[in-house]
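Example for tutorial group B:
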């Protein structure tokens, strides 16, 4: 059951390369739909954006494209694999940072709404993921990484905000096994954006699943941050 009044800007970045393939892509699509059905979607609550990627990212919709759950689910259920042999996760992350987490695309980071990226990947990136991963941490973006099959564990840890936000399954058929944990994390995370006094915010998961409700607790650690921060 969604928590009343929560606000999130959540962008999903989905591996659409040949690593996934046409047989497995419907499983990814169903997994994504099952998560969305448990979020309190609305223009003044949880906003959703989506992009697919292989050698580069292709936007499906922005945070302000749709305002209702029905519209978003209709789009997601109609997704088709774009395909591609190359997997450039670094470039895709950079693209999402540049074009999705902006005011013009519907981001509410200036209002203090948590900015969340959920990466679903199934292979090793052919490019460097560290620069965009570092930038996401500087911007206090909360990044989840869901890896299936041949996902690279080292790259997953590099990209995620912290190790507690890395989720792995051996096969795509096992994605439903982590649905509750991912959904609970999305509902309970608390990481405000970088404040004007140049504070860096780091969200750390401090407990794992503690009950059937699978509620996950977070602590917020504030550290001085000296670099210039651009809106």
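The residue assignment follows.
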């Amino acid at each position: 059951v969604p928590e009343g009044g929560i606000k999130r800007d959540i962008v999903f970045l989905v591996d659409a390369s040949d690593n996934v393939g046409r047989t497995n892509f419907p499983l990814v699509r169903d997994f994504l739909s099952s998560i969305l059905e448990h979020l309190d979607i609305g223009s003044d609550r949880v906003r959703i954006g989506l992009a697919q990627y292989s050698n580069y990212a292709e936007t499906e919709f922005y945070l302000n494209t749709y305002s209702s759950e029905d519209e978003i689910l209709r789009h997601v259920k109609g997704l088709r694999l774009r395909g591609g042999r190359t997997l450039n996760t670094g470039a895709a992350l950079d693209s999402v940072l540049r074009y999705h987490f902006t005011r013009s695309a519907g981001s509410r980071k200036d209002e203090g709404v948590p900015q969340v990226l959920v990466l679903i990947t199934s292979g090793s990136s052919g490019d460097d993921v560290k620069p965009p991963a570092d930038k996401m941490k500087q911007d206090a973006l909360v990044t989840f990484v869901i890896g299936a099959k041949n996902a690279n564990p080292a790259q997953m840890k590099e990209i995620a905000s912290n190790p507690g936000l890395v989720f792995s399954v051996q096969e795509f058929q096992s994605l439903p096994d982590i649905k509750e944990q991912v959904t609970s994390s999305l509902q309970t995370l608390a990481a405000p954006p970088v404040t004007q006094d140049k504070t860096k915010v780091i969200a750390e998961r401090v407990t794992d699943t503690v009950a059937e409700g699978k509620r996950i607790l977070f602590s917020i650690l504030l550290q001085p941050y000296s670099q210039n921060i651009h809106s």
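Residues 191-231 have pLDDT under 50 and may be disordered. Compare this with the pattern of hydrophobic and polar residues in the output above.
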